[in-house]
Amino acid sequence: MTEHSSDEARTAVVTGASSGIGEATARRLADAGYRVVCAARRTDRIEALATEISGVAVRCDVTDPDDVARLAEAVGERLDVLVNNAGGAFGQEPIDRTDPDDWSRMYDLNVLGTLRVTQALLPALRAGGAGTVLNVGSIAGHLAYEGGAGYTAAKHGVAMITETLRLELNGEPVRVTEIAPGMVQTDEFSLVRFGGDAQRADAVYAGVPEPLSADDVADAIAWMITRPQHVNVDLLVLKPLAQAAPWKVAREG
Ligand code: 8X3
User: Fold this and answer.
1) How far is the CA of 7 from the centre of ligand 1 (A)?
2) Is the model's pLDDT at 69 over the cut of 60?
């Protein structure tokens, strides 16, 4: 296995780094000694974050192949870690009422976004000699829930990218891993899902004693990444104590 010399900073790319799990992961990886390339659409946020953690900000919308090509250019020839975090849900309607346009957007963002960035950065991960691809999936990628089909379909797609890539890279020095969080309370996930309806978004977490925080997930991601390179955490499912399933949450009050 190729090892890096101790004075050479390892580099990690985090997509969707402007908020939530992505931002928290960028901070955790910087704490762990990585030079973090913070990629997202909102340049003001990633520039502030990059300044704070001595990283680099690269504007990147993962649904835009030109942006992804520019990200790969900014990364250069060698890369150690890719965290495919950019993603999200649009809508939560039953199948008989769900909007196919929401499904297209979710597939483009979650599945094709992960594919585009992975394809573009895989050469640098291979060249680094000790790479890791970590896909931020969801419990929605491993089960079904009512109203969730568009999102669960997309996250199942992410899970299959993870599984397939691990098979295809077998024998190469690149780990392929997935974290599958359940209920995580972030500023934006549910608000985006419900098109800015704060009441609907707040109801998701109502009475839940302690949903996961973005930092709880980032902590687990950093743990997965900082295992010795021969240890591949295939899949880590992370839920708050109060959640047994998407539809089974112990609420107070
Ligand atoms: C978010 C978890 O249960 O809302 O990825 O689908 S869930």
Assistant:
1) 40
2) yes
Q: Specify the pLDDT at position 101.
A: 98
Q: Ligand 1 pocket test: pick from 85, 179, 183 the residue with the most ligand atoms within 8 Å of its Cβ.
A: 183
Q: Is the Cβ atom of 182 under 6 angstroms away from ligand 1?
A: yes
Helix (H) or strand (E) run with residue 13 in it: strand 11-15
70-124 pLDDT, tens digit each: 999 999 999 999 999 999 999 999 999 999 999 999 999 999 999 999 999 999 9
Transcribe 91-138 into DSSP letters.
Answer: ----TTT--HHHHHHHIIIIIIHHHHHHHHHHHHHHHHSSEEEEEE--
pLDDT at 3 over 80: no
Q: Is the CB of 138 under 6 A from ligand 1?
A: yes
Q: How far is CA 208 from CA 63, 143, 194, in A?
A: 33, 21, 19
Give the tokens for residue 204: 């998701």
Domain 11-181+215-240 has CATH 3.40.50.720: yes
User: Is residue 6 over pLDDT 50?
Assistant: no
139 lines ligand 1 (CB under 6 A): yes
